[in-house]
Amino acid sequence: MQVFIQPSYGTPEARRYGAATLDRPVPFAGAAPADVERLTALHPDGRARFWGATEKHDKRMATVRTGDVVLLTGGKHVRAAAEVGHSFRDPAFARSLWRPAPGKCVWSNVYSLRSYRVLDVSYEAIWALPGFTAGDNFMGLRFLDPVKSAAVLALLG
Length: 157
Description:
ph1033 like fold; 6 helices
């Protein structure tokens, strides 16, 4: 299992995207048929929470699997944690979810979330864990090594 950190509440645009797909589950019938099939197996009610990553992260996102854990951050806090459901690449579906402004970079990688928990864990609490550096603001998508992953998961319970 991998643990990764992804900014998701730090900018007005991210908060708008979060309001659309993190604050509440949304229908996924508009995804590609194979993805709808997998999503339905994981989210039988036809709805899920979603987040994503840009194409510059394609290689790393290709390693994300069901059961990996994502920490969603913003404002120097871990705001939520969730287990990844289904991770897939579908820019058209991403556009339908987040409706980016014309010319704005849209995510090509999309992943559903299970066991979504709202949190309020300060970066200071994370920095105090083994292997972390005080003052690190966790900019951008970051995958944690096994030692840091274990420490964060222990902290979050």
